[in-house]
Amino acid sequence: MESIKWTKAYVAPTYSRTEITIEKGEGYVVFDDTGKRYLDFTAGIGVNSLGYQHPEWVAATQNQLSQLQHISNLYYTHPSAQLAQKLCTRTGMANVLFVNSGAEANEVAIKVARKYGHQKHPDKHKILTLNNSFHGRTVTTLSATGQDVFHKYFDPFTKGFDYVQTNDIADLLDKVDDTVCAIMIEMVQGEGGVIPLETEFIEAVSTASIQHDCLLIIDEVQTGIGRTGKLYAYEHYNLKPDIVTSAKGLGNGLPIGAALLGEKVKDVLEPGDHGSTFGGNPVVSAGANVVLDTLTDEFLDQVTKKGDQLKAQLLAVEGVQSVSGLGLMIGVTFDSYTAKEVVEQAKDAGILFLTAKEKLRLLPPLIIDEQAIEEAVSCINHIMNTKVGVS
Fold first, then answer.
1. What is the CATH number of the domain that holds 216?
2. Residue 176, in any domain of the structure
3. DSSP secondary-structure letter at 263?
4. Domain presence at residue 31
5. Among 66, 193, 227, 256, whose CB has the most other CB atoms within 10 angstroms?
6. What is the pLDDT of residue 77?
7. Residue 190's closest CA among 321, 324, 17?
């Protein structure tokens, strides 16, 4: 209990924490300081893609830690170079800039878009994002986020953003013009409620970006690294993005961000335009290389199959109103329960879930298996049948 006491006393109160102290994890389960087991359907909010204590990942990071924990980007290191090569080879992107988080990767994307636009015309600086989007918590990525709830207290925000109604082609066409340097979208809006974009809208965004010579930026911070059954979610569609941002699952628990740049913008940034002290850290990169090596086509096919299984079982539960998402990124609404009520009761039963607005959000490690899926669905089914209210 000391960890809870000390955290409340000495850590800034920016999180609504659950009264559990997690001490260790193994596979897709974690254990608290009393030894209680929890089936983890959060994966550190979509981060622990290979779960806990993945043997190859542990070996790679420990081995690198014993050789070189950090050196500045004034020098070369093999793990980050190898990671860049793998990412570009797998995606067809031209190069990559490593940072430490999704917000930082999105900051890079915004800077590249602004410089690209300025090189075309001084007035080509506007970036369109979507209503209900989420792109980070820095002042600029909050500006890019299309939710009014985040636009409080910290103004004045970075100018030059406008927001298109999600899946509204008419609104998109009304707002895109030659002053727009980029359109920035998430294929599935995670923090916005696990809402996939409609295919017709995605096609309209792609067409508009070509017609107005503005960059197509895909924010894959939560959807990327196998989460939807593809390495990146944009691969489900016939898209050629100019910039793809990545983070979360790439590090499997260690902090990393990456901005993948296409041919059109590979040379936009020059020495001095951006930097990151810890970007491409060799220990983090060593682990990320294992993540990419593990995410084979066969592995990704299994993610799709497990996601389909989870959706089908959830839809069969009486009291489940809707199920949304792709792969193992799933949102659920209920007839008579709130998502927070389900999270609280599931926690007591030994299963950890998340919320996303009014939805229950499921982001299990990608190594989850059929037995764990059945256990989670059985828990939800039990909650629906007992109808015990939670204040």
1. 3.40.640.10
2. yes
3. G
4. no
5. 256
6. 98
7. 324
Tell me the average pLDDT of the chain.
96
Q: What is the pLDDT of residues 319-375, one digit of tens each?
A: 999 999 999 999 999 999 999 999 999 999 999 999 999 999 999 999 999 999 999
Q: State the DSSP H helix or E strand holding residue 332, giving kind and residue range, or none if neither.
A: strand 329-334
Phi, psi dihedrals of residue 331, rounded to the nearest 5°: -120, 140
Pairing relationship of beta strands 215-219 and 29-32 according to DSSP bridges: unpaired
Which pLDDT band holds residue 387 (cuts at 50, 70, 90)?
Answer: low
Number of domains making up the chain: 1
For residue 241, the one-letter residue type is P
Place of tokens 């960890």: 3
Is 251 inside a domain boundary?
yes
- DSSP single-letter state for residue 254: S
Cα dist from 291 to 70, 196, 233, 286, 303, whole Å: 20, 25, 17, 9, 14
Burial category of 362 from C-beta neighbours within 10 Å (exposed 0-12, middle 13-18, buried 19 and up): buried
DSSP state letters, 265-296: GTTT--TTS---TTTT-HHHHHHHHHHHHH--
Residue 217 forms beta bridges with which residues?
A: 184, 243
Model confidence pLDDT, tens digit, residues 85-106: 999 999 999 999 999 999 999 9
Q: Say how far apart CA 234 and CA 223 lie, in whole Å.
A: 9
Query: Which amino acid type is present at position 81?
Result: A
